[in-house]
Amino acid sequence: MAHVTAAERRPQLIKAAIDLMTRKGVAAGSTRAIASELGVAQATLHYTFGSKEDLYAAVLTQITEDLVAQLERAAPSGGGFEETLAALAGELWRSTSEPATNYQLLTELIMFALRTPGLSEARDSHYRRMLGVTTKLVAETAERTGFELSRPADVVARFFLAGFDGLTMHRLCLPDEAAEHVGLQAMVAATVALASGELPFTDVRLG
Fold this sequence. Notes:
73% of the residues lie in helices and 0% in strands. It is elongated and about 60 Å long. The chain is an all-alpha fold.
């Protein structure tokens, strides 16, 4: 049998872990089960990644990069600022219902990472990556369309992503297609209003 290097084995194990946990959930993703999914010895997984946390971090990174690539492809080369944000929101929204994009698994991994110190960097990296690419798309779209941002691009991007995260959690836990569509449209409209300076602010006491 031909020798398979750790570099070659790594993407195979990541895919096996994603396939297994997409079907059965994060809790089912033991090193033994993942190794069995690929048909290799458990020691192979530990040799390639060192620990289960290292593998989980690699899975989280892979899903994040897949989502980033999907988001970048969705950004239209033409159209106005609002139209572009609507296209990005629509693409992200579709990803929450398509098994191939592993959005539910991503959500489970993020929740698991909140309770797992060894995954804190991978968790934070996911949010930095998503904020970074969304900030870039907001800034590039504003420049391309001549849209004057009244708030920094990263503030607009954070607001957009926070609204989207809230809507997706409701979709996963308490689905209501009609309400979700209204919420998504309102989120895009509010993001545009924030970006343009037309969103009125209300004083909120924090202490």
